Amino acid sequence: MVESKPAEELTHESPIAETCPIVNAIREIGGEWKLIVIRYLAEGKQGFNELMKTIPDVNSKTLAATLKYLEEKNIINREVESTRPFRVKYSLTEKGISLGEAITDLKKWGEQWVGKTKPVKSAEAMGHA
C-alpha cells in the first residue's frame, strides 16, 4: 500500500523552482492579459482607449490593473501628454522591448499549434536584434 504525503509537504514549493528562470519569468509576465498587452504595445505607443478597442474581451478594470502592474515591473512606460484634455500613452521600456524575440517565438508556436494570429513585429523591427 502506498502512503500519501501529508498536505503540508505537497504545498511546499521546491527550492529549485525559486531559482528557475522560466518559473520566475512566468511569474513576472504570465497570466491572461500581460503578454497580450505587451504584444499590442510592441506595435507602438497606445492610449488606454486604443488598447481597450484593440484587445478583445478585456474590461477596463482588468486593463488598468494590468497596465499598472507592467509599469511597476518596468516593462512599460506611462507617459502623460500635456494636451487638453491630457492623454496618457503607454509604450514598452527596454525591458519590454527585450521580450520581442520571445513574443515572436510564441507567435510562431501559436500559428503552428493553435491557429493563425495577427502579425507581431519581429524582434529586429522592435529594435532588438
Written overview of the protein:
By secondary structure, the protein is mainly α. It has a domain at 34-113: Arc Repressor Mutant, subunit A. The protein is 50% helix and 11% strand. It is built from 8 helices and 3 strands; from the N terminus they run H-H-H-H-E-H-H-E-E-H-H. It has helices at residues 7-11, 15-19, 21-29, 34-41, 48-54, 60-72, 94-97, 100-113; strands at 46-47, 76-81, 87-92. It has a 3-stranded antiparallel beta sheet with strand order 1-3-2. 14% of the residues are buried. The model has no long low-confidence stretch (mean pLDDT 84).
- Integer average pLDDT: 84
List the total number of helices.
Answer: 8
Spatial strand sequence of the major β-sheet:
1-3-2
Distance from N terminus to C terminus (CA atoms, Å) equals 57 Å
Biggest pleated sheet:
3 strands, antiparallel
At the fold tier of CATH, the topology name of the domain at 34-113 is Arc Repressor Mutant, subunit A
Per CATH, the superfamily of the domain at 34-113 is: Winged helix-like DNA-binding domain superfamily/Winged helix DNA-binding domain
Report the helical percentage: 40-55%
Let me know the number of strands: 3
CATH class of the domain at 34-113: Mainly Alpha
- Spans where pLDDT lies below 50 across 5 or more residues: none
Structural class, by secondary structure, is mainly alpha
- H/E element string? HHHHEHHEEHH
Task: Specify the CATH architecture of the domain at 34-113.
Answer: Orthogonal Bundle
- The coarse overall form would be globular
Q: Beta-strand level of the residues, as a percent range?
A: 5-15%
What is the alpha-carbon Rg in Å?
Answer: 18 Å
